[in-house]
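BUG: 3D viewer hangs when loading the predicted structure for this chain

Environment: internal workstation, default settings.
Expected: structure renders.
Actual: progress bar stalls at 90%.

Input used:
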Amino acid sequence: MTIRDNMKIRSIGRQITDGVKLYAYPMLDRLAEKAINEILDVASIRSRSQLEGWLSRKAVALKRHLLLFSEVEKMVQQAGFDSIEEARAAVKALTGELPKEYNHKFVSGAFPVFISANDKFLSKNTAYIYFWVFLDKVGKGETFSNVDFSPAAMNLFQRAMWDGMIEEKTKGLHDSTWKVVMDPMHKLKLKVERLPVKLQKILAKS
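Structure tokens produced before the viewer hung:
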């Protein structure tokens, strides 16, 4: 085949990769790229038409084994998560691999304090899971204080109340007192278990 033919075939490979629409994790992007490159390097195929046909068949096989972005979004929403990133953070929290760089926002001790939800690292996609980690540190049946009345913090508290995780005990001008009424990690485990096992494994590795 000519150089021009190879360029056209590689273009087809990129189109197939784009068509798969993997759900945006670098590890899966590399998997798709590796699969296409392996296809392109097969020495037994000697013509463009043969390779184009094989590429199409491999693309179908690839789509059968890898989850589409829209399918994953539907799965995580059915499990009770707002986004794929939130589901990923939940899986990481259960395995103990969730990054700890947000701990300075949560002060533990004899009387834990929730300090702030406003942090450039604490995105809306993962903040709720970090809030649950904080609640787990407080402990079921225990109380904590909140000194953050920002919209971001209020969203976290409102959602946790809807989920039956916390209840407000007192409300002052500068702080409020809350009680953890459910076991956060147990409830989080139940939510994660609603995800397909295959997806749990992929999220854990990404």
